[in-house]
Design a protein that fits this description.
Elements (H helix, E strand, L loop, with lengths): L6 E5 L5 H8 L2 H6 L8 H12 L5 E7 L2 E12 L4 E8 L8 H16 L4 E7 L3 H9 L3 E12 L2 E11 H17 L4
Bound molecules: coenzyme A.
Length: 186
């Protein structure tokens, strides 16, 4: 039986770099990312170096009982407006159903409580049903659609833009916890 304390988000460290690069370069994650070229180790190292010296982006590793399963990143943190844009993926393909939702719940808490944000923005390809359901389940509201916005292969794809206000999350927090932890391992 797993409890809430089995799950955590922690900052990325240098020891995670090889694992994160393998996850980020997997077909599954590239298929859902804006930029889908295969990232080289040098590029990855340069990205990590930039991350260390930058206050607008954070990158967290999601663990279950001290085993890494995925990542949550918050980018473009805007202290004036209290906003940030998030990204996430489950790297371990055999993760049980419901794992992404638990990671998302922790990511939302982190953004609102640790970073003090007022609003989280998410963007999904319109074809990415898992990400769309994931955002809606976490209480995000669809705020718009960027039509034919990103070139994916031969085609420009639509992007669905989601927003979650801290005030809405606070109102629904208990209910959300119940549904996310209750549905784990279905
Ligand atoms: C998006 C992602 C993190 C969700 O993680 P997950 O472990 O699949 O999530 P959960 O099992 O908690 O499911 C969350 C919701 O998505 C739905 N879902 C999961 N996989 C799905 C799929 N392949 N097709 C349609 N819906 C799916 C679930 O049914 C659930 O919704 P529900 O509770 O209303 O039924 C994961 O699929 C992933 O890492 N995808 C690749 C990277 C990615 O797309 N990142 C987001 C970029 S915007």
């Amino acid at each position: 039986m797993s409890g809430r304390s089995d799950y955590l988000l922690r900052a990325i460290s240098e020891e995670d770099l090889e694992m994160v690069l393998a996850w980020r370069n997997s077909d599954r994650v590239r298929a859902s990312s804006y930029s889908d070229h295969v990232i080289t180790p040098d590029e990855h190292m340069a990205w990590f170096d930039r991350l260390q010296n930058n206050s607008t982006d954070v990158f967290m590793i999601f663990e279950i009982r001290e085993t890494p399963f995925g990542v949550v990143q918050i980018n473009r943190i805007d202290k004036v407006n209290g906003t940030g844009h998030w990204g996430f993926y489950i790297g371990v393909e055999e993760a049980p159903r419901g794992t992404g939702s638990i990671m998302g719940l922790l990511g939302v808490e982190f953004a609102f409580i640790e970073l003090g944000l007022r609003k989280i923005v998410g963007e999904s390809f319109a074809f990415n049903q898992a990400s769309i359901r994931f955002h809606l389940k976490l209480g995000f509201v669809e705020e718009g659609r960027l039509r034919k916005h990103v070139l994916k292969g031969e085609k420009y794809e639509d992007i669905v833009v989601f927003g979650l206000l801290r005030s809405d999350w606070e109102r629904n927090r208990m209910e959300l916890e119940g549904s996310v932890f209750g549905s784990q391992g279905r």
